[in-house]
Amino acid sequence: MHLNLNTKNSDIIANCNYFVTKIGVIRHHYEHDYKNHQPGMQKQEFLNIVIPIKDKLYRMAKRILISHDEAEDAVQEVFMKLWSGREKIKNYSKPEAFAMTMTKNYCLDRLKSKQATNLTIVHQNYKSNDARTEDQVEARDGVGMVFEIMKQLPEQQRIILQLRDVEEYEYSEIAEIMEMNETAIRVNLSRARKLVREELIKKYNYGLTKN
Questions:
Q1: At what angle do helices 68-84 and 17-29 cross, to 10 degrees?
Q2: Mean pLDDT by 10-residue block, N- to C-terminus, for the chain (211 residues)?
Q3: Biological process (GO) annotations (predicted)?
Q4: For the CA atoms of 181, 172, 167, 50, what is the dihedral angle to 10 degrees?
Q5: pLDDT of residue 206
Q6: How far apart are CA 129 and CA 135, in angstroms?
Q7: In terms of Cα–Cα distance, which of 103, 98, 13 is closest to 57?
Q8: If we measure between CA atoms, which residue out of 66, 65, 97 comes closest to residue 82?
Q9: Which of 28, 157, 178, 200 is the least crowded, having the fewest Cβ atoms under 10 Å away?
């Protein structure tokens, strides 16, 4: 079973003005690079790498953090971290996998921190009006129902399902991002799909019974 859930969050970082401003601030701290005529990775070169994957980073962040606003903040923070370590990006054959791994780890740390401070109630209610509107629209069709079910999956299974069935990553790429072997990825994906399928059947049968 392959869930075809391709979606795009067109509202994610509608423009890069804020980000470019932040880069300017960081660049000030790296003035010695320019004074010594060793500029390293330039801003445009960096943006050419990260902008094409920003939507994927956002969807990963939102799948973990749920909140629209927190997901955007997380992506912004990851962008800043990537810029600070921009020279390392050149050492990776797959910068996208590196960025996705960083996003995953950052969001999981944020989630653990929230749980530790007993903010899960705030977490559930911390949705913007746009996010609530989006949820209402999605709830009208099967895709929205699947996304709601995915939120209830165990953390690891939820991320793997997102990477495979939504982002359409290869198993080898998911293994790299999740820092797991491919066998474990396939097992978790199979379990996640089974749970989603079972919940869909329950909801469908409930709808028939109710009607």
A1: 30
A2: 47 45 46 47 84 93 88 94 84 85 90 56 43 49 75 91 89 92 96 92 67 49
A3: DNA-templated transcription initiation
A4: 110
A5: 64
A6: 10
A7: 103
A8: 97
A9: 28
Tokens found for residue 203: 């909801």
The residues, any chain, with a CB within 8 Å of residue 59's CB and separated by 6 or more, are: 7, 9, 162, 166, 167
Q: What is the DSSP string of 93-158?
A: S-HHHHHHHHHHHHHHHHHHHHHHTT-HHHHHH---HHHHHHHHHHTTSHHHHHHHHHTTS-HHHH
What is the distance between the alpha carbons of residues 99 and 97, in angstroms, rounded to a whole number? Answer: 5
Q: Are 171 and 185 in contact (CB under 8 A)?
A: yes
What are the sequence ranges of the domains in the chain? Answer: 17-210
Nearest Cα residue to 5 out of 132, 168, 160, 139: 168
Tokens representing 184? 């474990």
- Tell me the whole-structure pTM to 2 decimals: 0.57
> Which residue from 124, 99, 98 is spatially nearest to 111, judged by alpha carbons?
124
Q: What integer pLDDT is reported at residue 7 of this predicted model?
A: 45
Question: Quick count: other Cβ atoms within 10 Å of Cβ 167?
Answer: 21
Q: Give CA–CA dist 111/129, Å, rounded.
A: 22
> Rounded distance, CA 118 to CA 107, Å?
16
Question: Which CATH fold would you assign to the domain 17-210?
Answer: Butyryl-CoA Dehydrogenase, subunit A; domain 3 (1.20.140)
CB-CB neighbours of 189 under 10 Å: 18
